[in-house]
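Reply to dn_fold:

You asked what the input looked like. This is it:
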Amino acid sequence: MSDAAIFTFIFLFVLALATFLKIALALRHMLHVSEHRTSVPPDFAAAISLDAHQRAADYTIAKSRVGILDTVVGAIVLLAFTVGGGIEAIGTAIAGRAPDLQPLVKDLVLIAALTVLAGLIDLPFTLYRTFVVEQKFGFNQMTVKLFVLDSLKGIALGAALGLPLLALALWLMGAMGAGWWLWVWAVWAAFNLAMLVLFPTVIAPLFNKFSPLTDEALKAGIERLLTRCGFASGGLFVMDGSKRSAHGNAYFSGFGAAKRIVLFDTLIAKLTPAEIEAVLAHELGHFKKKHIVQRIVTLFALSFGCLALLGWLITQSWFLAGLGVNTPSHGAALLLFSLVLPVFTFVLHPLTSLVSRKHEFEADAFAAAHTGSRDLISALVKLYRDNASTLTPDPLHSAFYDSHPPAAIRIARLNALSAPGAAST
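and this is what came back:
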């Protein structure tokens, strides 16, 4: 058996295993949520009605069903693109129709064609989630017109930013010899740092309206919180999230002096000023505990390792041949690597989820120390209820996927922090 055939077998085995695990975890989650649908957990019974609890269960199950179908279709499409010869066929068709194109341009067309095709395949799932599932449970505020406008803006922005970046990466792959991957990593890292600065003021306003916070009482409370925490902000803004969804949220964006605090208008409508301050204190905790910096450093380190791996794989004939490509090119190698890497790294989900949940606990402790835990508990319970977040996730599914601790564990931890004699953070 050739090296290419061995790699094909390994890829098929890992894809089958990952697909099986995804479906099994989703089915476990659905069953666990369904079994606990008939009663509200005692710790939440006073604040969340049985109707709200059952709505959250039904919402979770509906999303999981779509997720299972998406998983199956995604695996089939991946097989078609790779060992099924899809990338090879599209590359051959491009070369046949435009034989005089430069290799770099051919690679750009190949990647763009696959991106468009993958987007078209995913479109029915996006439409169903938005206009069926989210609509059914009262969350969708998106109109068809707004959906189309958002899609067109996204395509235009992706082309304006992505194509030049991709062209530069492909040029470096051809011009910089065996060490090309180090140059590509440096460009990629610089691009991501630039996006951290540009996103709040240039990109985000293309999709949403950001208005200065005008509620003077709320603004004064937040500014006192920022002073207590030693945090300098580039401004307090309200985002018109309600024109797309009824879900509420708050976040910090930007980097350095460009940091902005953004409140969804839906969040302001649902929470009291004290609860909003507690939610913001949690987000401040991520900054003060260096979680954002840690995530950026981790992302850069992982991307460094991945590009180094690709730098080696691209020299191995079995990599391309084992994934259905018999006409080597830099574009095909980039495509294949980006497509199959998530399959091989799927088993790392529990580790990344564990780290994320640890950060959430630390941010909760920071918020409890600076605003008191009672307001954060009250805010979280309202958000669980209003966002139809299940209170009874399957433990294994939660450990594998969830970036935030399960509601019961999170609230219990906050209650412990509010107990007399609890240590502050």
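Strands lie at 210-212, 236-239, 250-253, 260-264.
Hope that clears it up.
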